[in-house]
Design goal:
Blueprint lengths: L1 E6 L3 H10 L6 E4 L16 E2 L10 H9 L3 H8 L3 E2 L3 E5 L2 H16 L6 E4 H7 L9 E5 L3 E3 L1 H14 L3 E3 L4 E6 L4 E5 L3 E9 L5 H5 L9 E11 L10 E4 L9 E4 L5 E4 L3 E2 L10 H11 L11 E12 L5 E4 L6 E5 L5 H20 L23 H10 L6 E3 L4 E2 H9 L7 H8 L12 H12 L25
Parallel strand pairs: 1-2, 1-12, 2-9, 5-14, 12-20
Antiparallel strand pairs: 3-8, 4-8, 5-7, 6-7, 10-11, 11-12, 13-16, 13-17, 13-18, 15-16, 19-20, 21-22
Helix pairs in contact: 1-6, 1-9, 2-9, 11-13
Length: 479
């Protein structure tokens, strides 16, 4: 029997799994998809918010303020890209300047450091490409950017390194409450566990309703984005917000940790919890709205677009609590923005909650928080490159020319704990296919490497989900 079973391997579930691994517990991490980080975590704005935006007194405000300063240490331990580049909330009228004043005061109540309201000239000094219509801005220097799926994958890897059992392709069908435990029925197996932590994202209400009467609802809110080529990475140095509305923080423009430019999202409440389609209408809206921030956004350099779903809770705040109808079942639900920023603090809180409930947790003296570093071949100096090629010639074979990714890096991403099993799994871990051609040239080679390393037929290698096949068979037989 497991001590704790976590359902959902997004950024929240993987943070909690790693935090629980600090104790001598049997821990299972269940995920319905082919890989970790396959839901909201793979499709969001990748921002570590400063914390001024959340209403004072809410869980959002509390955990954002606590979580933001934790990222430097955790990203260093896990070898994940993270940069504190600061954010600007832009005002385009005197009325909006008043809104910035309100956000500033809210930030002070939330104890966010170093906030400043800037005039137009001060904004232009930081961001020379900003729209001429900008009147001023709220500057938050502690805001940052991170690789969100890379972080979740690193958390999962480190959790598995510390003896957490990761179970992919295990969709929860039913949960039965027993006297002092639960039985979780998946499409693959039955799992008995003392505690359940519900981190199922947009499906968290469905999971909760398996063990208790409905008490909250999760509404999928779709947001669509553009990604620009790295050649446009100098159009902004900061995270650029427009003044927020009731639908969220609006269309933003920001650099990514890998020097692309990200533009979006819009906000659209939908019913289908799997609908991550992009639409011409909404992408056109994002395009037009972004021109308010930067008048000359180079949309001729778009390399891809995508959509993600946010888990909008009916409660308007994070839901982090033990079910009052099913003891030992903890909901960590409705973790919309600033959920990524709050994630490490949420994980600590949930683990402390469990520890107080149980009273018998013992520290794992062998817990190792350090993840083995990823080799970024092109970041090495010439001597280091020669040395690593001497040890493993696969590092001398470039597979992805856009991102300069070698076979050695791809093989390493597959053979780690919680390693890649799909084309997109490799893509998110070490970036082949993330460049201008979007895998048009390197895709077949990545598939060949995956098939070889996993001992599978190439037609069984999928792009992402279990049904997203790429190859169906040979086009001709070799004689």
């Amino acid at each position: 029997m497991y001590d704790v079973t976590i359902i959902g391997a997004g950024i929240i579930g993987t943070f909690i799994a790693r935090e629980l691994a600090r104790y001598t517990l049997r821990i299972a991490l269940l995920e319905k998809d082919n890989d970790v980080a396959n839901g909201t975590t793979k499709a969001n704005s990748a921002i570590i918010h400063a914390g001024y935006d959340a209403k004072s007194g809410t869980l959002k405000a509390k955990f954002n303020a606590l979580g933001n300063p934790m990222f430097d240490k955790v990203c260093e331990e896990l070898d994940v890209p993270f940069k504190r580049i600061g954010s600007l909330v832009l005002a385009f009228s005197e009325d909006q300047m008043e809104t910035l004043g309100e956000l500033y005061e809210q930030g002070r109540q939330n104890k966010i450091p170093d906030l400043r309201i800037l005039n137009r000239d001060e904004v232009k000094a930081i961001e020379p490409n900003i729209s001429e219509y900008v009147v001023g801005a709220l500057h938050a220097p502690t805001a940052g950017i991170v690789g969100p799926w890379e972080l979740a994958m690193a958390l999962a890897e480190n959790a598995v390194d510390n003896n957490v059992d990761l179970m992919l392709n295990n969709e929860v069908i039913k949960i039965e409450k027993q006297e002092d435990s639960y039985v979780i029925f998946t499409n693959e197996q039955q799992i008995k566990t003392k505690y359940v932590i519900n981190c199922a994202g947009v499906y968290a209400d469905n999971l909760h309703n398996m063990v208790a009467k409905p008490s909250f609802e999760i509404i999928p809110r779709r947001g669509q984005y553009f990604v620009l080529d790295k050649s446009e990475g100098n159009i902004t140095n900061s995270i650029l917000f427009q003044c927020p509305t009731k639908l969220g923080k609006g269309v933003l423009v920001l650099p990514t940790v890998h020097e692309n430019i990200l533009i979006g999202p819009d906000a659209e409440d939908i019913e289908n919890k799997e609908n991550t389609e992009t639409t011409e209408e909404r992408l056109c809206y994002v395009m037009e709205a972004s021109r308010k921030t930067l008048s000359n956004v180079p949309f001729n350099s778009v390399i891809t677009s995508f959509a993600g779903l946010r888990a909008k809770p009916s409660t308007e705040d994070f839901i982090i609590e033990e079910s009052n109808q099913s003891k030992g079942f903890i909901n960590v639900a409705g973790i919309e923005s600033p959920g990524l920023s709050a994630a490490p603090a949420i994980a600590e809180y949930v683990v402390n909650m469990l520890r107080d409930m149980d009273g018998s947790f013992k520290l794992n003296e062998e817990f190792n928080p350090i993840r083995r570093k990823m080799t970024v071949f092109m970041a090495l100096n010439e001597e280091e490159k020669k040395e690593i090629i001497k040890k493993d010639p696969r590092y001398g074979r470039v597979i992805c020319r856009c991102e300069n990714i070698t076979e050695g890096e791809i093989v390493d991403s597959i053979n780690r704990n919680a390693g890649a099993r799909t084309f997109d799994g490799v893509k998110r871990r070490v970036r082949p296919g993330m460049g201008r051609c979007q895998g048009g040239f390197c895709g077949p080679r990545v598939m060949e490497i995956l098939a070889r390393e996993l001992g599978e037929d190439i037609v069984d290698i999928v792009k992402d989900s279990k049904k997203s096949y790429i190859a169906t068979g040979l086009t001709k037989n070799n004689v």
